[in-house]
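TL;DR need structure tokens for one chain.
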Amino acid sequence: MDFDSVDDFENVEMTYVSFLSKGYISRNKFLFDKIKLTNFSKFVLYSCVYGTPIFKIGNSGKKILVLSGIHGNELPPQLANLTLLNELVDRDLNNTVYVIPFASPNSTMNNERSFNSLDLNRAAHITNSLSNKIIQAIEELKIDCVGDFHSTAYNSNPGFESVFSSKKPSPESVLIAQHISHDVGSEIIKYDVAGSQYKGAVEDVCNLRGIPAITCEVLSPFASIGKGSFEKSLQQMKSFLSYFGF
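>> reply
TL;DR here they are.
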């Protein structure tokens, strides 16, 4: 993937994972009203009008991806990831961070869980689905580790704050989950083999391909931002980065 430097933000490069997923984040008032509209945030939202942007900060060390918005109606991690991206823009990093704050801007715009009738966290193994295009980008960029950030409601699966991991074939997944759990208190959900519970999660497809990955969940009603959920998701993201020495 070819990244272009972003004018006015000298530490940031950007390209697109897909142009089919474009959407106006500002139409989701439940999310947009919570966004601090810095110049960089405005640029990110503008970029989403054309598709799924991926941002790159830093150019050394480990390559880490922070991903959110696989489910467009899970709002806390998308707000947290945009906030994190703003914090990283002016930092000199000892590793390279890739950030996808809005995996499916169209789904986020509509406050919907799916995209093109697909649950993207059950479709990452389906060739050329939007989540599979994210997997393709991960492999092309030779990303070393992936953190996928979600939210869950009381009546859904898992229904509590947690971090998913698996022992095989990428055992570092469990070590990262343990680090996050120790830092922020999220309960560990651990499987013996990636993808054994269900197929197509971004985390599982990454682990099965030898790229250590975890999925973090915070508790919030779908299509809204529950009290404290944005802050906890941001803590999970920062803990994930701290595992790599950020």
